[in-house]
Amino acid sequence: MEAQVSSPGRMKFIIGGVLILAAIVYLIVSATSATAQYFLTVDELAARADTLQGREVRVSGAVDGNTIQYDPETLTLTFIVVHVPGDLKDVDEQGGLAKVLRDAVSDPTRTRIPVVYVGPKPDLLRNEAQAIMTGRMGEDGVFYADELLLKCPTRYEEYSPEGVEG
Q1: Does 164 reside within a domain?
Q2: Over the stretch 101-152, which tens digit does the pLDDT of each residue have?
Q3: Per-residue pLDDT tens digits for 43-100
Q4: pTM summary value
Q5: CA–CA gap between residue 101 and residue 151 (Å, rounded)
Q6: Angle, vertex CA 87, rays to CA 86 and CA 90, nearest 5
């Protein structure tokens, strides 16, 4: 039996297909790494602050209401966020989000990070609100938020699933 020799046209087709596939894989990998964000707790951000400086990250923590300062002329908002667990199972085991946020703010041993945000002051910004922020950690140890989302769990406590009948 004689081995079949592939035609030059077929070999060009295979090489072209491999090159196209390699280009698609490269584009997917480069696009995801460029837009990837870390989602961290305050403890994780504080522990990795040196390696994450200048990189865009998303952080979640409890707002310490005693630290809120707002300058309406420059639209500069400063406050401190306090570490809360990032695992929903841990939050549920500790009594729910409202209790976890309340305990975090009242515990002076928890990790705290100062935040600066420039923009209008959100209506939900208050003590024990959950802040979810996207931004960058500065060399000065301050988190500079570009986006600020707030969730105030005390507004929704009465609507908890335990109160819903099947």
Answers
A1: no
A2: 888 889 999 999 999 999 999 988 899 899 999 999 988 989 999 999 998 7
A3: 998 888 888 887 889 999 999 999 999 999 999 999 999 998 887 788 888 888 888 8
A4: 0.69
A5: 11
A6: 115
The reply to whether 64 and 75 lie within a common domain is: yes
CA pair distance 110, 44, nearest whole angstrom: 12
Domain count, the chain: 2
Residue 73 sits in the same domain as residue 90 = yes
Structural domain boundaries enclosing 20? 1-36
Least Cα distance to 133 among 144, 122, 142 occurs for 144
CATH number at residue 84: 2.40.50.140
Q: Which residues contact 69 (CB under 8 A, 6 or more apart)?
A: 77, 78, 79
Contacts of 96 (CB under 8 A, 6+ apart): 153, 160
Is the Cβ–Cβ distance between 80 and 110 less than 8 Å?
Answer: no
Q: Give the N- to C-terminal CA distance of the chain in Å, as an integer.
A: 74
Helix (H), strand (E), coil (C) string for 22-36 = HHHHHHHHHHHHHHC
